[in-house]
């Protein structure tokens, strides 16, 4: 059993072995609040988020709150996010905060400290970041993560239609920009056992990959499963044999079954079973 002092890669590997390969988003956007019969207000934000934590955080390996849906309520929304993070971690789930930060210098350091320093009320196990100010701009996040045994997931190949104009662009050496990001992270993960701390985000609906995904020695976060059109077969097609470190991420496909906690658990269990092949 891993402990909080273990590296993120070690904790993630243990969680995937114990709980199966699934990350569930906590995305309290207005459509889902309405679907649960809730208003679009702070009280409903808290009810939605803590219900998700109660239903899922003792079952799934990773939960992924989307920070933006909390931030839109200002400081009171951030307070709900803090309580949601605490509830999920207390129940044994790893928390990956979807913040997609990307900045330089002392600003990037401050973002990293806000989310990865255990003294922060927003402290989580890992965050998402954007490398498109140059991967080197994220060095402060890598440094803070390494100091505190946390993880960083870097956007690599995203499913949004605008992504390819940057991610598929070719460098002078012929590699795609996405490939250069993956290669640089693979170098950072070299030699890590059982898994490196630095991962890449690859959408389940990207179509054909323009990058070699086989040598990362770190986790792949794969959003877009279920309601967004991604499937287990897409995961097989995109990742081939490199499946053990793949973390499929589903939000609406699971969350639409709320607010009943039993129905949420059953939906998550079905998704875990669907991706059981990843850890065989």
Task: Walk me through the structure.
This protein has 280 residues and is α/β, with parallel strands linked by helices. The protein has one domain: TIM Barrel, CATH 3.20.20. Helix content is 43%, strand content 14%. It is built from 12 helices and 8 strands. It has helices at 8-19, 30-35, 42-56, 67-71, 74-90, 105-116, 139-148, 164-167, 177-189, 232-239, 252-255, 261-274, and strands spanning 23-26, 62-65, 94-101, 126-129, 151-157, 198-202, 220-222, 246-250. An 8-stranded parallel barrel has the order 1-2-3-4-5-6-7-8, surrounded by 6 helices. Helix 7 links the parallel strand 4 and strand 5 (151-157). Helix 3 (42-56) packs parallel to helix 5 (74-90), helix 3 (42-56) crosses helix 12 and helix 6 (105-116) packs parallel to helix 7. The longest helix has 17 residues, at 74-90. It is globular.
